[in-house]
């Protein structure tokens, strides 16, 4: 029996030993992950490991003024416990935010990028001579960035040249600020323009004429800068004007100009003029929604048939200019031809006029616009002096007469508040109330309704030649149709 039980005891011992080893392995495999998890928890609790999934984003973006608000203050205290943040935020919030240009994003649309791909074509440059403040320039800039403008060349003076304004402008990607310094004036004094005749009629005259020459000199410099930056198109635009790229497959100026045939040198945008809807406008770009269409975008019989109803006693159909603005393809020998057109020293540019796209001109949207223009030149309120200072009739009128007392401004507001009447009824009333001369004009316009649009636009194109710079021209009046006939 003793010999028989010996092998059995050995077999039972080996089985027990194997089971004990397996249980130890299972215990080790269970305890090891638990120990590692506990160790990691202790490290994170002590702050030695940052968990990316639980941390606040490091690119926190606040808007100017948030730090002074209850929400901004509470958010700031929360963020400061998670990552390092500067507590020196002050009134320079706007400059600090706009200065973060490395991402190529706009401050009002954090995370959105505009023109980050330099391979997008065509590349468009806008140049402007401005003395406006940020409340006008910033929305103007961002709007045109959205529709595809790549570069802005801003020739600044007045309010726009103040340090707190220019610092913000310089921090925006794609914006170059050029100050009107003595060095700039010395450089422009050597321009070939002074030795040529096409701009000579505007030399050495005050106010609007001086501005016109200054704009032309700035445009000449902008051509060189834009070409050095690899731009394809250049446009001169004021900061109270917005380009309206209607007619393209998408709402994009880049798309619109990419569809222009390669043999076209200049594209003309007819301008629409804002109509005053009320006398307490604060932000024209967001509050004004009504515009007068340009003569080029209206049927001829409608324009002349309703002329008196549209002018409401003002000197012209538009208060200011009516010959639009233009975009030029950047090429050799390009030069400005006044603030509204471009030209070429070696050839007559091949130009087209767009059928739908336009420049939206937010002119005289506030009464202060009238008084500021009247006061900035120092011209006497006489007919002779106003003609010496201003090119357009309405500007001259604003000098001679007190606009509020004369009723011009009030009449324009009253016009915009009238009920909208259908075009047919309004035209019938207009025809019925006209004298025999106007009836003859309507009859003439009907008989020539089949003529080409190019012929119909001859009146507006007056003065558009290489012999002289194209000044701001008023739209055609009733007398112009008689001249054409």
UniProtKB/TrEMBL annotation:
Keywords: Glycosyltransferase, Membrane, Transferase, Transmembrane, Transmembrane helix
Name of a matching Pfam family: Glyco_transf_92
Cellular localisation: Membrane
Source domain of life: Eukaryota
Keyword Transmembrane helix assigned: yes
Keyword Transmembrane helix included in the entry's annotation: yes
Uppermost EC category: transferase
Comp. bias regions, Polar residues: 444-453
GO molecular function, one term: glycosyltransferase activity
Region annotated Disordered, chain positions: 443-485
EC number(s) given by UniProt: 2.4.1.-
Transmembrane annotation, as ranges: 21-45
Entry GO terms, CC: membrane
Family to which this protein belongs: Belongs to the glycosyltransferase 92 family.
The protein's name in its UniProt record: Glycosyltransferase family 92 protein
Source organism: Dendrobium thyrsiflorum (Pinecone-like raceme dendrobium)
């Amino acid at each position: 029996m003793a010999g028989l039980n010996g092998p059995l005891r050995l077999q039972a011992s080996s089985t027990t030993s194997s089971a004990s080893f397996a249980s130890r392995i299972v215990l080790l495999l269970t305890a090891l992950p638990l120990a590692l998890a506990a160790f990691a928890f202790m490290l994170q609790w002590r702050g030695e490991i940052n968990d990316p999934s639980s941390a606040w984003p490091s690119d926190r973006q606040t808007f100017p003024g948030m730090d002074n608000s209850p929400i901004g203050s509470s958010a700031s205290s929360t963020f400061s416990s998670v990552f390092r943040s500067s507590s020196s935020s002050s009134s320079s919030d706007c400059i600090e935010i706009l200065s973060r240009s490395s991402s190529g994003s706009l401050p009002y649309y954090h995370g959105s990028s505009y023109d980050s791909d330099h391979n997008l074509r065509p590349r468009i440059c806008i140049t402007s001579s401005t003395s406006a403040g940020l409340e006008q320039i910033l929305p103007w800039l961002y709007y045109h960035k959205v529709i595809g403008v790549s570069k802005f060349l801003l020739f600044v003076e007045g309010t726009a040249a103040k340090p707190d304004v220019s610092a913000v402008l310089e921090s925006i990607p794609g914006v170059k600020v050029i100050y009107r310094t003595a060095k700039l004036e010395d450089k422009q004094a050597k321009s070939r323009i002074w030795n040529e005749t096409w701009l000579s009629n505007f030399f050495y005259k005050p106010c609007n004429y001086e501005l016109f020459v200054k704009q032309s000199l700035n445009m000449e410099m902008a051509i060189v800068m834009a070409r050095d930056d690899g731009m394809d198109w250049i446009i001169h635009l004021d900061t109270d004007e917005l380009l309206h790229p209607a007619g393209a497959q998408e709402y994009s100026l880049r798309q619109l100009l990419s569809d222009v045939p390669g043999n076209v040198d200049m594209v003309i945008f007819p301008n629409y003029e804002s109509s005053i809807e009320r006398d307490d406008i604060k932000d024209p770009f967001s509050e004004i929604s009504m515009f007068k269409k340009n003569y080029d975008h209206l049927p001829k019989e409608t324009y002349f048939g309703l002329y008196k109803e549209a002018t409401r006693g003002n000197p012209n159909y538009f208060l200011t200019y009516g010959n639009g603005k233009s975009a030029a393809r950047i090429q050799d020998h390009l030069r400005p031809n006044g603030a509204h057109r471009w030209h070429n020293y070696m050839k007559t540019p091949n130009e087209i006029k767009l059928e739908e796209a336009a420049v939206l001109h937010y002119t005289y949207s506030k009464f202060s616009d009238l008084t500021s223009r009247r006061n900035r030149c120092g011209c006497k309120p006489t007919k002779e002096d106003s003609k010496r200072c201003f090119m357009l009739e309405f500007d001259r009128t604003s000098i001679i007469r007190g606009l509020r007392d004369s009723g011009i401004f009030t009449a324009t507001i009253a016009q915009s508040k009238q009920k909208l009447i259908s075009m047919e009824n309004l035209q019938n009333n207009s025809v019925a109330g006209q004298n025999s001369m106007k009836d003859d004009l309507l009859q003439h316009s009907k008989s020539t309704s089949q003529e080409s649009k190019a012929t119909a636009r001859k009146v507006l194109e007056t003065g558009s030649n290489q012999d002289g710079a194209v000044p701001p021209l008023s739209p055609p009046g009733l007398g112009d149709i008689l001249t054409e006939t």
